[in-house]
Amino acid sequence: MNDDVVLLQVDEASGVAIVTLNRPKALNALDQVMATEFARVIARVADDEGVRVVVIQGAGAHFMAGGDIKFFAAMLDEPAARRGELINGIIDRVHDSVIRIRAMDKPVVASVRGAVAGFGLSLMNACDLAIAAADSYFTLAYCHIGTSPDGGGTYGLPRLVGLKQAMEIALLGDRFDAETALRLGLINRIVPVDELSSATISLARRLARGPTKALGRTKRLLNESLQRNLAEQLRAEQDSFVACAMSQDFARGVSAFMEKRKPVFEGD
Q1: What total number of domains does the chain contain?
Q2: ∠ at Cα 196 (33, 202), nearest 5°?
Q3: How do beta strands 53-58 and 108-112 pair?
Q4: The domain containing residue 225 runs over which residues?
Q5: CA-based angle 256:222:214, to the nearest 5?
Q6: 88 and 196 share one domain
Q7: How far apart are alpha carbons 262 and 245 in whole angstroms?
Q8: Residue 198 domain-assigned?
Q9: Model-level pTM?
Q10: How do beta strands 129-133 and 108-112 pair?
Q11: What does pLDDT average to in each consecutive run of 10 residues of the chain (268 residues)?
């Protein structure tokens, strides 16, 4: 990978892929190279049928401190047209990654600690589940550099916390702690800092042992429910259930239930 700014580790035995943002000295801030590599890695794990769960984490003491301000500062002397071209390029890659995270038919878990700022918060919100170390702190932050959010920040926030809370987070840019994030529904659980890695792997492996295709269809149903009326959602649920009932994992699950034992799903 280019300068190893994004690392990928796949445990073939469990089907867990760990994607690590790897610019710890810059608090894993996003620049042009990282945006490109992250998009490539996310596309790879999305298409890999051997991957049953994806974990996204940051190297070092932080998840992601948003966009790299030094990268933005270096563009200030560029003509407006060139600056727009550079910014559009990086946002195109970021948005491609967010769309793939939301669309891939497998769970994606954000494992966060330290700074979760700017696009870091948008990225965490794009993931299906989020587990946070007790030292995590959160801020959307865009207003502090005179811009509006990207990366789906204005899409995820109102759906997760409601419009008024989303307005406060986005318009004021205040920092808040993990307990507040949990209360708002932005994260699923808080763990001690030294237990984040083990707790994340435990959660990822639990998901990976599940019926992967059924979990993917459940994820899609929940995501698409926000754009459907009740009748449309009921039809989608019916179609999805029938598709699941044709799978080998369905047969394994029913047989295990009848035999009063735990099912062993293989993701097919």
Answers
A1: 2
A2: 105
A3: parallel
A4: 212-258
A5: 25
A6: yes
A7: 18
A8: yes
A9: 0.95
A10: parallel
A11: 82 96 96 95 96 98 94 87 90 96 97 97 98 98 93 95 96 97 98 98 97 95 94 95 94 94 92
